[in-house]
Design goal:
With about 325 residues, the protein is mostly helical. The chain folds into 2 domains: about 200 residues, no CATH class; about 90 residues, no CATH class. It has 14 helices and 4 strands. Strands 1-2 form a two-stranded antiparallel sheet. A two-stranded parallel sheet has the order 3-4. Helix 3 packs across helix 5, helix 6 crosses helix 8 and helix 7 crosses helix 8. It starts with a helix and ends with a helix.
């Protein structure tokens, strides 16, 4: 039933906004613009010595994180109508983060979305870090979730019938590290400081989002498993990735309509404390101005009191995600 609702939503979007000629949805030009800006900044720092300064470096790190956001969206729904262009775009995004975008299929689409790997905990579960000083958990989290993800990917890829995904994983890896290696060959130190460091910043930053959006939530529930950041300006540049609950529950929705579905389905069922108006204010309050980890609370009261929806069970949603990935 959820798939039918989401497909109908997609048809409505297409009629309302017109049929784009290259991309699947007109909003995708925003994502293309983000990545083009990121590559332009990296190119400027590499080729123009005057651009190797703090401002350009900070901008590169910022857009590297946004590049990782685009990876997330693209691996759920390809930007382009052409499969060839989508695979090529995957390589471009992989270079921007210095990791193969294909790893998102098992790590995010199949495991993280359903908070488990065939009975084992999510590779990026907040419980993977346990410092008493919560800021250390935020800093250290990529050091745990990153290796978990890639070791999990190796186990997952070893299962038969996944040759296409393994092949794309190798292509993404080859392009990302190959192009970075070529740049390093011609100018090692510029590449290390002004290409590799921004690449790593985005890759590690997107891993921290898993802690930020799920710590203190109840992943056993259907509607109170995620924290949402609902600021309009924030979600414009983040391509609506602040609306995390509805994305988990209806991953087939295009990112451009998540705010509408959040208001329709999430808001009546989510604890008000899980709708944060500002990510910056939340980060300062939770990690900088507070030493200890916030205590777990019962955040599912609103969910228990609300009317049920026609949301498919998690097992069915995971099967649908596997089918969408071609498995």
């Amino acid at each position: 039933m959820a798939s039918a609702v989401e497909s109908e939503s997609g048809r409505h979007e297409g009629k309302a906004s017109g049929e784009p000629w290259l991309v699947k949805h007109p909003a995708e030009w925003r994502q293309i613009g983000i990545v083009a800006t990121y590559w332009s900044i990296l190119g400027a720092m590499y080729f123009v010595p005057a651009c190797r300064n703090v401002l350009f470096f900070a901008a590169a790190c910022y857009f590297s994180f946004l590049n990782a956001v685009v990876i997330h969206n693209h691996m759920h729904q390809g930007v382009f109508k052409s499969k060839t262009l989508n695979l090529g775009w995957r390589r471009i995004l992989s270079f921007g983060a210095l990791y193969p975008a294909t790893v998102n299929i098992p790590a995010h689409n199949l495991v993280h979305h359903h908070f488990e790997d065939d009975g084992q905990p999510d590779w990026a579960a907040p419980e993977n870090v346990s410092f008493k000083w919560h800021l250390l958990n935020l800093i250290h989290f990529p050091n745990v979730s990153g290796p978990n993800t890639f070791s999990g990917m190796q186990r997952w890829a070893a299962v038969g019938g996944r040759d296409d995904v393994r092949k794309q994983y190798l292509y993404d890896t080859g392009f990302a590290f190959g192009l970075t290696g070529v740049l390093a060959f011609f100018d090692l130190w510029t590449t290390l400081f002004f290409i590799v460091l921004p690449q790593l910043y985005g890759a590690r930053g997107i891993l921290r989002i898993n802690l930020i959006q799920h710590d203190g939530c109840d992943v056993t529930t259907e509607w109170n498993h995620s924290r949402n950041f609902v600021g309009r300006a924030f979600n414009w540049i983040m391509c609506n990735n602040g609306y995390h609950t509805i994305h988990h529950n209806r991953a087939g929705l295009h990112w451009s309509v998540l705010h509408e579905w959040h208001a329709r389905e999430v808001k009546p069922r989510v604890d008000p404390s899980l709708d944060e108006p500002s990510m910056l204010a939340y980060l300062l309050r939770t990690y900088l101005f507070s030493l200890g980890r916030p205590r777990a609370r019962d955040v599912a009261r609103a969910e228990r009191a609300a009317q049920p929806t026609e949301l498919a069970p998690r097992d069915a949603r995971r099967a649908e995600a596997a089918q969408a990935a071609g498995l």
